[in-house]
Write a structure and sequence with these properties.
This protein is an alpha+beta fold and 180 residues long. The protein is built from 4 helices and 4 strands, in the order H-E-E-H-H-E-E-H. Helix content is 38%, strand content 13%.
């Protein structure tokens, strides 16, 4: 029997048309005022630092390397003052949720049997309708709240862009107006 073909990880992968890097940056920008305000409370974020990782929802695990599926990474606070590697924590949380298509809390507390050696045991990432966002720096439940806010913003921005495309009579994502 011939071997099963697998996609080449070297081939370029096209991600989401509507949930692209610009949309992800806007989603973070819209969430920042509430996040920064909440971070002032030491019971929310004792470190004063936060790191955000947003994955491309149009790219599935196995289509490319994890790093190539990251849309945007964003740091809050002076990284030279970090007391831990919040970027590594946020990336590990996002990687786990992206690989499974599940929220970190669900994986950590309800599906521990799916965790592999080397997987993060930290909560603080979500997968909302395929939009994966990992956050680290605050208490885990606040990391999750911030991640949910960013993911919901990205979903709304994408839906708005989709609605505009239809209004412009674009019937195929990325196609010019009137294309069928």
């Amino acid at each position: 029997m011939p071997p099963v073909a697998s996609p080449s990880l070297a081939a370029p992968v096209v991600g989401s048309h509507f949930a692209n890097a610009a949309a992800a940056c806007l989603a973070i920008e819209q969430a920042l005022p509430a996040i920064v305000q909440a971070m002032r409370n030491p019971q929310v974020c004792g470190s004063g630092f936060l790191y955000v990782v947003v994955m491309d929802p149009g790219i599935l695990p196995g289509e490319c390397r994890f790093d190539d599926a990251i849309l945007v990474e964003h740091a809050i606070g002076d990284r030279t003052q970090w007391d831990a590697d919040y970027a590594a924590f946020a990336r590990a949380k996002a990687a786990l949720c992206w690989r499974h298509g599940q929220d970190g809390q669900r994986l950590q507390y309800g599906m521990a049997h799916r965790l592999r050696e080397g997987d993060s045991l930290l909560s603080g990432a979500v997968c909302l309708d395929g939009i994966t966002v990992g956050v680290s720096g605050a208490e885990a439940w606040w990391d999750e709240a911030f991640a949910t806010t960013i993911a919901a913003n990205l979903r709304a921005i994408s839906r708005g862009a989709h609605a505009q495309a239809l209004k412009d009579r674009r019937l195929v994502a990325g196609a010019p107006t009137g294309a069928h």
